[in-house]
Amino acid sequence: MEDMLRQCIRKALNLTPLLRSTLIRPQEVSPVADLPSTQLQALFVLNVTPPLSMSVLARKLAISKQQLTKIADALVLRGCVSRSSDEKNRRVILLSLTQEGKALVRALQDEVVERMLPQFGRLDETELQEFSQAADTIRRLLDKVKN
């Protein structure tokens, strides 16, 4: 069982360069958003989650709270993110996307999708279904591993 665990982890790690070049990098170089990659990643995380505390978002981005403070300040200044106090604990600052932030993420994703259509167009219908199912499976399993 432990050998299988190690093999699965190595296979997942070996996907990193391919995922980075195929899916992540195209988002980072999009002309739609002239933002550093850490700010983009913060927007992407906030786009798929409810408002997050600074601590939780820093953990999800694998950065320090001090680094996140600078990122959050820049995104608030740009109008993409808003800060609010947690009703249960006023010392906790929550970050969430503004309408402008949501529109920016949507525009960025739309632009990247259009740019990537020729690449994914190389797949036939069966392969597209297989890819979609694999993406759902990987997402579900990584969420389980992470939590």
UniProtKB/TrEMBL annotation:
GO terms for molecular function: DNA binding; DNA-binding transcription factor activity. Keywords: DNA-binding, Transcription, Transcription regulation. Pfam families: MarR_2 (PF12802). The keyword Metal-binding does not apply. Residues 1-147 form the HTH marR-type domain. The keyword Transcription applies. InterPro entries: HTH_MarR-typ, WH-like_DNA-bd_sf, WH_DNA-bd_sf. PANTHER family: TRANSCRIPTIONAL REGULATOR, MARR, TRANSCRIPTIONAL REPRESSOR OF EMRAB OPERON. This is MarR family transcriptional regulator. It comes from Anaerofilum hominis.
